[in-house]
């Protein structure tokens, strides 16, 4: 017999977007946050560089932030949405200050701001040097845990959305820890904040399980999904054989780190007049092209010209991690290679999180609000998570829908259509296919080949007993299909376009 519970507001996903929504909804009713894992399971926990704000908060500061966002977004941002995002910056900043998030200050107590690529001015606040995400998230989690109207349920994987006969979303079903038994939650409003899907790619900066589940479940329920072609690849990701990719924050380049080849040449100026401070998509593409020209050369991020002790003091977490892997950033340039980092598209939603399904809201990286266009401006993601976590409550907090029954989920079959390929093999194939066909440089034949291979794996699906691991692979395959199909029709913007021919690798000189 399936367990069933009832709540006013159901939030799925416990990153910064989810926790901010919980905080904003608690004055209006009971909130249940269901997540696949602990705080460290989502990307928010690992955000290093910081939070972009229209620092100064005057009309000119806001306008500059809007213009930088639009420029980085390469023509695909929705300008009114960007204005809303930036306009709410001061509100979320005040909210964070009221939570005592320990943002970094100088010896006079003035908040420190830094600059990152494609920002025209320093406007990024940070905490703990490079531990901004963790410190914001843990402050939010601590605050909401004090409220008796809040409950947290971990180790539950979103399975499907619950709907009433009129098609209104009235909660969701989850697979529990064993991956077999189902839990049904009926809710007045359902908010998805399950984050992005960059771990569907072979090389990714995201936690391992960020594989686009929210998009898959929403798509199956008939919700509009858009712009899945637009993934952002981060250029400066540590590349040590046998080690997981590890992000070297963009704030390093913002503060003067150099991208060099083995000879120490700063080749990025060959690609863009802003060199290291060019938009992320431009830099990643330049790294890709450069490594294709001379694969053995290697590409490095160098901070060796920083004053002694500065790297360890300003970027303590990154410095320590690299040191453990044998790279002392104070003295040695770090080998880098791009990796998938951020999903710009997702569940189509407005600036209050409303999706195309009544009763369902989407916020944070899982949502496509069109504020990032074809290429997100650095550190605008935490801003989006906080702003949308607040704005969703503005929309639904005052209009309470009581949880309704009426879904026949209690008769949920214990069978589902699931891929029958070996799960481990399926994942490694999927990640390789997306990396090869939907990566930094895409060609039509590769995209078509990738799509055929994904469809072939989907084609193995059979009715089988519901099981968490196989269900997750089914989600991954569906999202991969959406990405590849979208690439075939997506407008050309930023660096996410299909080239007619793969640039030729350098011909090796036989001598
Ligand atoms: C290494 C790294 C550094 C970054 N640095 C910055 C930065 O400095 N500034 C910036 O603005 N952005 C940065 N980003 C991007 C930013 O961290 C994310 O875009 C943002 O935190 C997303 O927040 P979110 O709340 O939408 O999702 P997440 O924080 O990813 O949280 C998703 C939540 O959903 C849960 N979940 C996922 N699937 C399921 C499921 N099937 N069922 C139930 N629960 C599920 C997860 O367990 C998790 O709790 C960085 C990202 C990474 C990976």
TrEMBL record:
Cofactor(s) named in the record: FAD
PANTHER family, A to Z: L-ASPARTATE OXIDASE (PTHR42716), L-ASPARTATE OXIDASE, CHLOROPLASTIC (PTHR42716:SF2)
Enzyme Commission number(s) from the entry: 1.4.3.16
Native source species: Leptospirillum ferrooxidans (strain C2-3)
Gene Ontology MF annotations: L-aspartate oxidase activity
Pathway terms, separated by semicolons: Cofactor biosynthesis; NAD(+) biosynthesis; iminoaspartate from L-aspartate (oxidase route): step 1/1
GO biological process, one term: 'de novo' NAD+ biosynthetic process from L-aspartate
Gene3D superfamilies: FAD/NAD(P)-binding domain, Succinate dehydrogenase/fumarate reductase flavoprotein, catalytic domain
Keywords, comma-separated and alphabetical: FAD, Flavoprotein, Oxidoreductase, Pyridine nucleotide biosynthesis
Domain FAD-dependent oxidoreductase 2 FAD-binding: start-end pairs: 8-382
Entry keyword Ion transport: no
Catalytic function, reaction form: L-aspartate + O2 = iminosuccinate + H2O2
InterPro entries: FAD-dep_OxRdtase_2_FAD-bd, FAD/NAD-bd_sf, Fum_R/Succ_DH_flav-like_C_sf, NadB, Succ_DH/fumarate_Rdtase_cat_sf
Family classification: Belongs to the FAD-dependent oxidoreductase 2 family. NadB subfamily.
UniProt xrefs under Pfam families: FAD_binding_2
Name of this protein: L-aspartate oxidase
């Amino acid at each position: 017999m399936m367990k069933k519970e009832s709540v006013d507001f159901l939030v799925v996903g416990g990153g910064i977007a989810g926790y901010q929504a919980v905080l904003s909804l608690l004055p209006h009713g009971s909130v249940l946050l269901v997540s696949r894992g602990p705080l460290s399971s989502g990307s928010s926990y690992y955000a290093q560089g910081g939070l972009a704000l229209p620092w100064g908060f005057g009309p000119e500061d806001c306008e500059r932030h809007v213009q930088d966002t639009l420029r980085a977004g390469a023509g695909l941002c929705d300008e009114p949405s960007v204005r809303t995002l930036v306009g709410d910056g001061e509100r979320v900043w005040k909210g964070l200050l009221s939570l005592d998030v320990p943002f970094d200050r100088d010896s006079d107590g003035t908040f420190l701001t830094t600059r990152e690529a494609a920002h025209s001015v320093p406007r990024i606040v940070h905490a703990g040097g490079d531990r901004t995400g963790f410190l914001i998230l843990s402050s939010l989690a601590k605050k909401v845990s004090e409220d008796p109207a809040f409950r947290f349920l971990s180790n539950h994987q979103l399975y499907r959305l619950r709907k009433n006969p009129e098609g209104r979303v009235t909660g969701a079903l989850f697979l529990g820890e064993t991956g077999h038994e189902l839990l049904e939650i009926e809710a007045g409003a359902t908010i998805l904040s399950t984050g992005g899907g960059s771990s569907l790619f072979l090389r990714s900066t995201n936690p391992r399980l960020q594989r686009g589940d929210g998009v898959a479940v929403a798509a199956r329920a008939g919700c509009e999904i858009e712009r899945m072609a637009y993934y952002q690849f981060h250029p400066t990701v540590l590349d040590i054989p046998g080690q997981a990719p590890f992000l070297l924050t963009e704030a390093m380049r913002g503060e003067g780190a150099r991208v060099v080849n083995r000879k120490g040449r700063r080749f990025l100026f060959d690609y863009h007049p802003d060199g290291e401070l060019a938009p992320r998509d431009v830099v990643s593409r330049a790294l890709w092209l450069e490594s294709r020209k001379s694969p053995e050369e290697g590409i490095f991020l160098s901070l060796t010209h920083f004053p002694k002790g500065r790297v360890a003091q300003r970027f303590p977490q990154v410095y320590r991690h690299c040191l453990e892997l044998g790279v002392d950033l104070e003295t040695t340039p770090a080998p880098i290679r791009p990796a998938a980092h951020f999903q710009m598209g997702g569940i189509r939603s407005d600036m209050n999180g409303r999706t195309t399904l009544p009763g369902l809201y989407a916020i944070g990286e899982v949502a496509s609000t069109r504020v990032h266009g074809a290429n997100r401006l650095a550190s605008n993601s935490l801003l989006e998570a906080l702003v949308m976590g607040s704005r969703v409550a503005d929309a639904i907090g005052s209009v309470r829908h009581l949880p309704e029954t009426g879904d026949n989920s209690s008769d949920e079959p214990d069978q589902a259509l699931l891929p029958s390929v070996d799960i481990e093999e399926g994942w490694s194939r999927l990640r390789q296919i997306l990396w090869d066909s939907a990566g930094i440089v895409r060609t039509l034949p590769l995209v078509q080949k990738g799509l055929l291979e994904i469809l072939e794996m989907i084609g193995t699906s059979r009715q089988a007993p519901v099981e968490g691991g196989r269900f997750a692979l089914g989600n991954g395959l569906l999202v991969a299909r959406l990405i590849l199909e979208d690439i075939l029709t997506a407008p050309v913007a930023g660096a996410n376009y299909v080239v007619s021919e793969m640039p030729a690798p350098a011909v090796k000189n036989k001598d």
